[in-house]
Amino acid sequence: MNVGDGPVRTCIACRQKADRSELTRFVFRPDQHPAIVHDVSATLPGRGAWVHPVEKCLAKARTAAPFARAFRTKITASDLPRQDTEPKENG
Ligand SMILES: [Zn+2]
What we know:
Elements: E1 8-10, E2 17-19, E3 24-28, E4 36-39, E5 48-51, H1 55-61, H2 65-71
Antiparallel strand pairs: 1-2, 3-4, 3-5
Bound molecules: zinc ion.
The site of zinc ion (ZN) has 6 residues, from loops.
């Protein structure tokens, strides 16, 4: 199988390898809140975690366990990146 010569990353949700251009990046920044931010342009410093930009993988990543494993730290729900599409709770 020809993998090509591009940088390959592993999706933290499904653990399948993919070209980084096929994945979306999140970075862990413990001094920020939420600590995990969606690095849309893939340029932020810090440790990165890669996820397929599909609901199946994003939903699994939001369980926090894949991020905790990727960043080797404890992740709580409040550390997870906010979803723009999620309805607000209590206004
Ligand atoms: Zn995936």
